[in-house]
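If you are new to this repository, start here. Below is one unmodified record pulled from the training split, so you can see the exact layout before writing a loader.
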Amino acid sequence: MGTEIRTFTSLKDLTEYLANQTAQYKSLYEDYSQWLGTLLRDLEGAHKSDEWFQKSAAALKNIKAAAKKPAESAEKGKKGGKGKEESCWVQSGDIQISYTDQGQSEILFEAIEKIKAKIQETDKFKLTVQQLARLGLGTTINYIVYFEEDIPKKIVLKPKANGKGDDIFKFITELSVPAFYNFAST
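And here is the target side for that same chain:
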């Protein structure tokens, strides 16, 4: 989606939305990790001695180990593997094009790292929402959330206008009904 603003009427709705987002990101993370693992296993015979392949294989092992603990090692592995990026990518306008196996493995690593960052950012935001729940904020508040690149970045707490809307409706009704009866009696 990119950048958007969403309004949630309760913390429960917001929490459910964040849980669904996280589940989707984790599913993508797993799918891309498996795709990368399959790709590297398939390419092992042809590229086993290539430096980029060895770095990619090491980074994949770090990604799998990092799934259980905070991962910075996968990023280090990828950054080390970028040394030959110039040789496998051709600039065409605003787009980089590659026809190599190395290019395919690089985009998979990049996607995996970005998805992992989204998971971590969403988890941090979920902790903030849990803190709001502990404050006892109820259903009288709307939660307006600003999303940037599908990651919640800011939240505005806005009191709901339910009671005020009812008063306005009652006020209009009280004015309009007597006027109708006065008009009818003439």
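Two things worth knowing about this chain: Residues 4-162 form one domain. Residues 8 and 143 are 5 Å apart (CA to CA).
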